[in-house]
Amino acid sequence: MTELLIASEMKGTLRNPLVCMTLLGWHLIASYLVGWAQPDVKLCEKLIVPLSRDYPNGAIALFLKARLYLVKGDIENAIYFYGRSIEVQNVYKQFHHVCYWELLFAYSYLRKWDKAANHAKKLLDESKWSRCCYTYMLAMLIDADKGVPKREETVRYLLEKVPKLRLRIAGKSIPVEKFCEKKVLRYHRQGRLLFTHYEFMYFWNGFTILENNRELIKPILEDIEAIWKEEQSDDKDDYGLYLLLKGVSHRNLGELLDAEWCFLKILEIERFLTDYSYVTPNACFELAQTRKGMGRNDEVRPLLEKALSYRGYSLETKLHFRIHAAMENLENK
């Protein structure tokens, strides 16, 4: 990393733009994939300037600029530059698909479910990565938009396709596809999708990104509360997921006591969580982050170790990345 930073200062060299893109890729994308999610925004703002100047119509430069705006919480500008990245080239369609994925989440942060669903449909029509995942995402986004005609029939039709679209690579299932199928099986038992759009947003670092724009978190929290008030489910799994999303929202708003109450409540009902067993380890991790925010640092590592001790739940590897990154961060400090 030190060598990359030195090379990024070598203006006018062949390696400079490559190094800048590598550093931006790490801070803005890879750091979220491995659970670190602590980009050096000031460094990124510095690195993007020469790239934007030298390659004003470069698809990668525009994409990275969009991603920087997204990470900073400026969603509208992010959407604009993702669109520009798509417009400037038509050779590598796969790069369009990456932009569609980003736009899907960007519109979800704004709760513009119709536009998010439009990009999910584009991915389903054009991308071959995971038709199972794209179909599930399209269904949950249509379900989130209460104004869609024949919404329930469309959602049911799409979800019935999901199990048939699962792929196996060397005999192994793709974890996110397995997660989608489990959600569909629960839908068939319960007859509804509850909080699935916010749940997916959580697992793909959406709430982490929105920490930089609290004005977007407030309406999301209000929507979560309104959905729960309307549903009033007696199901403990539904209640656990509601508490997790509510707690994360409170933590992002700096309301740490409210967040702590939500996560502790999840730990109280842990034994009743069957379909959503993944809620408990994620709540344990979020409680560790909340206690860290409270300055109770001596309680953070035991909670992270407890979260790490859970086994056999959905999307386990994604949480393990976050836990190990949090532990490494503690050691560095």
Provide structural commentary.
This protein is mostly helical and 333 residues long. Among the domains are: 130-193; 202-333, Serine Threonine Protein Phosphatase 5, Tetratricopeptide repeat. Helix content is 72%, strand content 1%. The protein is built from 18 helices and two strands. It has helices at 2-8, 15-33, 41-54, 59-72, 75-87, 93-109, 113-126, 131-144, 151-161, 175-190, 196-203, 206-209, 214-231, 236-252, 256-268, 279-293, 300-309, 316-332, and strands spanning 168-169, 172-173. It has a two-stranded antiparallel ribbon with strand order 1-2. Helix 2 (15-33) crosses helix 3, helix 14 (236-252) runs antiparallel to helix 15 (256-268) and helix 15 packs antiparallel against helix 16 (279-293). The mean pLDDT is 95.
